[in-house]
Design a protein that fits this description.
Blueprint: H1 2-5, E1 11-16, H2 20-26, E2 28-31, E3 34-37, E4 42-45, H3 53-60, H4 62-75, H5 109-136, E5 140-145, H6 149-154, H7 160-171, E6 175-178, H8 179-190, H9 192-199, H10 209-222
Parallel strand pairs: 1-5, 5-6
Antiparallel strand pairs: 2-3, 3-4
């Protein structure tokens, strides 16, 4: 894939999202050269013609991902993870950014047994394959994890997300960036509610401008140049 797409880079920095684990359970199945959706429908062969730059931007930018999520939510009915589209005049609090089902696996034992444990295993197998490809091409990997508001409010600094992937990184000699550490230190100073409202988008799980600056500074403090 790297060679066929004509990509040249020295290092891949992988940011693992909290929801990636639930997605492993409900959306994706990787089999040889094909990516399958959870409902069994095939998407496309990964060796199809190279994508246009505009297509790559749509598939990989945070804002496009957020817009796809909003559109999907607006079409959904009666599921535990649906949220209304953000209302311009509503005053959002920390409560609107927590209690997402796909985030509960790190602190809720039932969710962990239901899909978390199994899908951590699946995710690590995929990460093993990614690392193998990178090393074959002499590309360095750095792995990073960060909390959603749910983790800030309900979880601990020693989250399952942190422990599992830090162990994986150490086992495979991969550099590890832990944003839980810095955010939970901040939580001790200002509290979970204020942290969520100050550094995350209103009614959302993504970081706002201040949150992105915080993550940038945390990354630069931990990254080995």
């Amino acid at each position: 894939m790297i060679n066929s797409a004509g990509l040249e880079f020295d290092e891949l920095i992988v940011y693992l999202d909290i929801s990636d684990i639930k997605d492993e359970a409900s959306k994706y199945v990787l089999a040889r050269e094909h990516l399958f959706l959870g409902d069994g429908a095939i998407t496309s062969n990964i060796h199809d013609k190279p994508k246009l730059q505009s297509e790559l931007i749509k598939e990989n930018s945070i804002m496009w991902a957020w817009l796809r999520s909003v559109l999907k939510t607006s079409r959904s009915q009666g599921t535990s993870t649906t949220r209304p589209i953000l209302k311009e005049n509503k005053v959002y609090t920390y409560k609107d950014s927590i209690d997402f089902d796909q985030a509960s696996w790190t602190y809720d034992s039932n969710s962990f047994k239901d899909y978390g444990e199994r899908c951590l295993s699946i995710g690590s197998q995929h990460m093993d394959k990614l690392l193998q490809i990178l090393r074959k091409n002499e590309i360095k990997m750095t792995l990073a994890v960060y909390p959603w508001p749910d983790q800030i409010y309900y979880d601990t600094v020693d989250s399952k997300q942190v422990i599992f992937w830090e162990n994986w990184a150490n086992k495979n000699s991969v550099s590890f960036i832990n944003h839980f550490k810095d955010l939970f230190q901040l939580k001790k100073r200002i509290g979970a509610q204020r942290l969520i409202e100050k550094y995350y988008r209103p009614g959302d799980v993504h970081f706002n401008e201040k949150g992105n600056v915080l993550i940038k500074e945390s990354f630069l403090d931990q990254y080995s140049f």
